[in-house]
Amino acid sequence: MERNVAYVALFAALIAVLGLVPQITLMSGVPITAQSLGVMLCGAVLGARKGALAVLLFLVLVFLGLPLLSGGRGGIGVLAGPTAGFVVGFPVAAFVTGLVVEKWRAPVTWSALAGSILGGIVVLYGFGVVGMAWKLGKTLPEAALLLTPFLAGDLIKAVAAALVTRGLQQVRPWMVLSRA
């Protein structure tokens, strides 16, 4: 039990640390950040429930005002901008990523890659598109088009999440709770 709590807190901190990587803000107002990699890793390593809990812990801290989102953003006001859909989608993305890794018993590299693509890209983009369309006054197709510059980087993050998960399983198999 204590180990699970420690892992949830550790991965919430990992998402915060990945927010320190300098962001690149595009014309849509949505920044390219490393934090979605943290969301993918939460699900791939911790599994669906614990991964979503780690992201929820991170978001509670953000909503309380800690400047943990990329660019030093925090507070409930983050839900007023074009990134609102992504923020709301973070825990769902981690959950879906973890669910794929838990249920699909392919080698962990492949299940983590598939989970990261499905949860960390498809699901997260779904939330992001809705949020961007709403906040920017765009149609859903127009908002979806604004996400095309993110796709290559997010695919690289999905591969990185898969490789990190595989590496952890090789050296510390007990840490990959999604496969416990």
Description:
With 180 residues, the chain is mostly helical. It has helices spanning 2-18, 35-46, 48-63, 84-103, 108-136, 140-146, 148-171; strands at 24-25, 31-32. The longest helix is centred in the last third of the chain and has 29 residues, at 108-136. It has a two-stranded antiparallel sheet with strand order 1-2.
Radius of gyration: 15 Å
The stretches of 5 or more residues where confidence is low (pLDDT under 50) are none
Strand and helix order: HEEHHHHHH
Beta-strand proportion: under 5%
Number of helices: 7
- What structural category characterises the helix and strand content? mainly alpha
Give the strand line-up of the largest sheet.
Answer: 1-2
Number of strands: 2
Mind describing the biggest β-sheet? 2 strands, antiparallel
What overall form do the CA principal axes indicate?
globular
Fraction of helical residues: 55-70%
End-to-end Cα distance: 14 Å
Would you tell me the overall average pLDDT?
94
Please sum up the structure shown:
With 180 residues, this protein is mainly alpha-helical.
What are the key terms here?
mainly alpha, two-stranded antiparallel ribbon, 7 helices, 2% strand
What order do the helices and strands come in, and which of them pair?
Layout: H1 2-18, E1 24-25, E2 31-32, H2 35-46, H3 48-63, H4 84-103, H5 108-136, H6 140-146, H7 148-171
Antiparallel strand pairs: 1-2
Helix pairs in contact: 1-2, 1-3, 2-3, 2-4, 2-5, 2-7, 3-4, 4-5, 5-6, 5-7
